[in-house]
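note to self: dont lose this again. the chain is below, predicted strucutre after it. 142 aa total, dont forget to put it in the shared folder this time
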Amino acid sequence: MRLALELAHRAALNGEVPVGALLYHNDKIIAEGWNRPISQSDPTCHAEIVAIRAACRYRDNYRIPDTTLYVTLEPCAMCAGAIIQARISRVVFGAFDYRSGCGGSVYQLLCSPHLNHRVELRAGVLGRECGELLQSFFRSRR
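---
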């Protein structure tokens, strides 16, 4: 998660909401991403999506099972959908998103019994640090 926080800082330096993500497979980082929707003029360039796209290219497959996604903020609906479609096995996130989180704080898409894939979740890892980075970023913008 510390590496994901470093990526989140990279996003903040570029004026993006500070969220970072890493995908691991067999104790090896296979992809990384940080928020880029503003710089890329693309609302789908969330950290998770950027990392998932890179991992799919790395694996040459649109499915990336047996991977763990570390992300500094609880995934939104778009990212949760991509996580499910990619068949990511596990998600570890830092800060809860009490406005639009889909890992249990507002919605529970990642473990929904209505879907054909369920993700193992671990929430709140370095949550205080991840949350403070986001709060600091938004305070500086106001």
